[in-house]
């Protein structure tokens, strides 16, 4: 399976012999011809290449989400040099709900960003807007908590042969930083999309229920086998085997889990297989949408509320 062919924060391009443009053009052209002769669009999407583009062209992605027009709480930003990331300069942001601010003892959810994104992609009206979704959640009666994000690079949030480990950066460097800002890091929430969705599921399983109350993953970038993965996402087959989340669903026992993926997303089939591997089906589901910000914005209210409820029972 190749990578999804559209979206923001998607994983790196997958290994392939045929160009992406060729697949998209041929898939879209076949769709036009087939629909013209009465072949159901839903059937086409399951067999033609360029699944994400095909769904979008056929209008099967559903409505785009929007960032709520509410007054958000304060954002606090900074940078630190990460030893776990081999000296990388890591930017970070903490979003507080309205009425709260630095020094307040709030629960916190950590956001793991997608490929080619940074900590800032989680926030802002033209990105994921999580500070506004958090403000709306609290305005609707949810208990206040903070959402924090940090630069993880493009190493898929797991230890690499180079020695870089973005997940260790989160646990050993970023969480202590959040604690110094007064936040309660004893038991956290995790959020993530695409590469970060995979990273959030993996890290929640590594830390377990004593450290993680909930994980919500949107369109997690999951593969069944190393040969399917994009170049650079895993070092080799052994690295993939050590860090895959398939077959390790029981590590999330006691953690509230939510997984969502759009049916027009190239990861949908793999994500459905992952969800099917739980003894008890996680929250979330598979509805119209692509591997893009339009879908992730639509999921944000549910994800912010899901994690918030688990952090403040």
TrEMBL record:
Family annotation (InterPro entries): AB_hydrolase_fold, Esterase-like, Mycobacterial_A85_antigen, TAT_signal
Top-level lineage group: Bacteria
EC annotation from Swiss-Prot or TrEMBL: 2.3.1.122, 2.3.1.20
One Pfam family of this chain: Esterase
Transmembrane stretches, start-end: 23-48
Reaction catalysis annotation: 2 alpha,alpha'-trehalose 6-mycolate = alpha,alpha'-trehalose 6,6'-bismycolate + alpha,alpha-trehalose; an acyl-CoA + a 1,2-diacyl-sn-glycerol = a triacyl-sn-glycerol + CoA
Entry protein name: Acyl-CoA:diacylglycerol acyltransferase
Keywords tagged on the record: Acyltransferase, Hydrolase, Membrane, Transferase, Transmembrane, Transmembrane helix
Gene Ontology molecular function: any one: trehalose O-mycolyltransferase activity
UniProt family annotation: Belongs to the mycobacterial A85 antigen family.
């Amino acid at each position: 399976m190749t990578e999804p062919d559209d979206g923001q924060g998607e994983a790196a391009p997958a290994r392939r012999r045929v160009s992406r443009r060729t697949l998209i053009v041929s898939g879209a052209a076949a769709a036009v011809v087939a629909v013209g002769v009465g072949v159901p669009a839903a059937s086409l999407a399951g067999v033609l290449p360029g699944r994400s583009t095909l769904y979008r062209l056929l209008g099967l992605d559903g409505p785009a989400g929007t960032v709520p027009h509410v007054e958000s709480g304060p954002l606090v930003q900074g940078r630190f040099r990460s030893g776990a990331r081999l000296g990388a300069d890591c930017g970070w942001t903490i979003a507080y709900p309205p009425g709260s601010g630095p020094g307040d003892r709030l629960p916190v959810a950590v956001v793991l960003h997608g490929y080619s994104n940074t900590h800032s992609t989680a926030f802002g009206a033209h990105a994921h807007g999580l500070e506004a979704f958090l403000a709306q959640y609290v305005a609707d009666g949810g208990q206040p908590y903070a959402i924090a994000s940090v630069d993880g690079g493009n190493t898929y949030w797991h230890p690499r042969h180079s020695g870089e480990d973005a997940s260790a950066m989160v646990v050993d460097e970023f969480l202590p930083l959040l604690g110094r800002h007064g936040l309660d890091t004893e038991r956290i929430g995790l959020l993530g999309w695409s590469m970060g969705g995979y990273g959030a599921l993996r890290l929640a399983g590594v830390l377990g229920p004593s450290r993680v109350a909930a994980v919500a993953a949107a369109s997690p970038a999951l593969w069944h086998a190393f040969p399917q993965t994009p170049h650079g996402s895993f070092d080799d087959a052994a690295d993939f085997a050590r860090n895959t989340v398939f077959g390790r669903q029981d590590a999330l026992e006691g953690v509230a889990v939510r997984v969502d993926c759009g049916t027009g997303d190239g990861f949908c089939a793999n994500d459905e297989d992952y969800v099917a591997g739980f003894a008890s089906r996680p929250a979330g589901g598979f509805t119209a949408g692509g591997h893009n910000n339009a879908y992730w914005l639509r999921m944000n209210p549910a994800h912010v509320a899901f994690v918030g409820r688990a952090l403040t029972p």
